[in-house]
Design goal:
about 100 residues; mainly alpha; 4 helices; about 55% helix
Length: about 100
């Protein structure tokens, strides 16, 4: 869900709100806790991010109506970005649908 929310944050800047922000921060904290509890999970973190990103692409298309081809094929942020509470993706466009293909 974290990757889904980061994509929505980037591609739907006009919908950003405090609840999204809090959700992203909470999900980051939960992942950090899991990695601290079981450091061996860090070894497979990259693989899990890649798999989770592919799932997030499916969900973001269904939830937003944005066409999956608008998104990078590989996750566009670093693993450090995912967990960094100060990292917030820059908007991919100005909020108008003219710059992003919308699924009909």
């Amino acid at each position: 869900m974290l990757l889904l929310h980061l994509l929505k944050w980037q591609f739907q800047p006009t919908l950003q709100n405090k609840i999204w922000c809090l959700t992203i921060l909470e999900q980051r904290a939960q992942i950090e806790d899991l990695l601290e509890e079981s450091p061996s999970r860090k070894d497979t973190f990259s693989q899990k991010v890649s798999t989770a990103y592919q799932r997030a692409l499916i969900k973001v298309e269904l939830e937003t109506g944005l066409v999956k081809t608008n998104f990078a094929q590989l996750f566009p942020f670093s693993e450090d970005n995912i967990l960094d509470p100060n990292f917030w993706p820059m908007p991919a466009h100005d909020g108008s649908d003219t710059l992003v293909k919308v699924k009909n």
